[in-house]
Design a protein that fits this description.
mainly alpha; about 80% helix
Length: about 250
C-alpha cells in the first residue's frame, strides 16, 4: 500500500508541477487544440504530396504525437527534479525505485491518452470518406503507443541526466522520430537500409501496423514491449552512471 501511495504522490506532484496543469486555458490548448492542429497540418502535408492514404498519415501521426507527449512529460519531470536536486536523492537511495519512475510517467500517460483520442477522432472527422475500421484499428494501437512513449521517456530522460542540456535527447527524438518511422511518407517507400532501420525504432512497428492489417495487435505489442524494455534498461543504466558521477564528486548537483 505504501508503494502505491508513493507512486500516486509522485504522480500528483509531477502533474501539478507541469506547465499546463496550473492553467486551464493552457491545458485546453495542450490537450485539444494542439493535437487537432497537428492532425490538420499532417493531412495538408500529405495532400500536398498527393498521398493516397491521408487517413493513415493522420492516425500514425496521432499515435506518434501521443507517445512523444508521454516522453516529454516524463523527461520534463526528470529535468525539473534534476534542478531541484530531487532525482539525485532518488538515485542515491534506490536507483530502481519503480514507484518513482512509474509515478513520474503516469501524468503523461493520462494526458496523452486524451490527446491521442482527440488526434484520432480529429482524423476521423477531418478526413471523411474512409472506413471507420481504420479508426478502430488506430484506436486499438493507442495503448501500445502509450507504453512506447513511457519507455522512450525514461530513455531520453536518463540520457538527459548525462548531458549539460537535459532536453537535448528529448528534442532530437521528438523532431526526428515522426520522419524516421514514416508518418507522412511510409517507411516502405524508404531505401532498404533506412526501411530496416525504421522498423527497429520506437513506434516503427506501430506506425507500420496502422495500414498493415497483416500485423496482429499482439505482435505489435510484443515488439514494442521488447524494444521498450531495452530502452528502460538503457535509461536506468544512464541514471546509474549519473549516480556514480555524483558519488565520485564529478558534480555536486545533477
Amino acid at each position: 500500500m505504501s508503494w502505491v501511495h508513493r507512486m500516486l504522490t509522485v504522480a500528483n506532484v509531477s502533474w501539478r508541477s507541469s506547465m499546463p496543469a496550473g492553467r486551464p486555458l493552457a491545458l485546453l490548448v495542450s490537450l485539444v487544440v494542439v493535437p487537432i492542429l497537428d492532425v490538420a497540418c499532417q493531412l495538408m502535408l500529405g495532400g500536398s504530396l498527393n498521398s493516397p492514404a491521408l487517413a493513415r498519415i493522420g492516425y500514425a501521426g496521432g499515435l506518434v504525437t501521443a507517445a512523444c507527449q508521454v516522453a516529454t512529460v516524463m523527461a520534463s519531470g526528470m529535468t525539473m527534479d534534476r534542478e531541484e536536486g530531487i532525482i539525485s536523492q532518488v538515485l542515491i537511495r534506490l536507483p530502481m525505485d519503480l514507484a518513482y519512475w512509474i509515478g513520474l510517467g503516469l501524468p503523461g500517460v493520462v494526458a496523452a491518452s486524451f490527446t491521442g483520442l482527440v488526434a484520432l477522432a480529429g482524423t476521423l472527422v477531418l478526413n471523411v470518406g474512409h472506413s471507420p475500421s481504420d479508426f478502430l484499428r488506430a484506436l486499438s494501437l493507442l495503448p501500445t503507443a502509450l507504453f512506447a512513449g513511457l519507455a522512450l521517456g525514461l530513455l531520453v530522460g536518463g540520457l538527459g541526466l548525462l548531458t549539460a542540456d537535459s532536453f537535448a535527447p528529448l528534442n532530437a527524438v521528438t523532431v526526428l522520430l515522426p520522419v524516421a518511422v514514416g508518418v507522412v511518407v511510409p517507411a516502405e517507400a524508404y531505401p532498404a537500409p533506412l526501411r530496416r532501420f525504421a522498423t527497429i525504432l520506437p513506434l516503427g512497428v506501430t506506425v507500420q501496423a496502422v495500414g498493415d492489417y497483416g500485423l496482429s495487435w499482439t505482435a505489435v505489442l510484443l515488439a514494442e514491449v521488447i524494444r521498450g524494455l531495452v530502452e528502460v534498461v538503457i535509461g536506468l543504466a544512464a541514471s546509474v552512471v549519473a549516480l556514480r558521477r555524483i558519488r565520485s564528486g564529478a558534480y555536486l548537483r545533477l
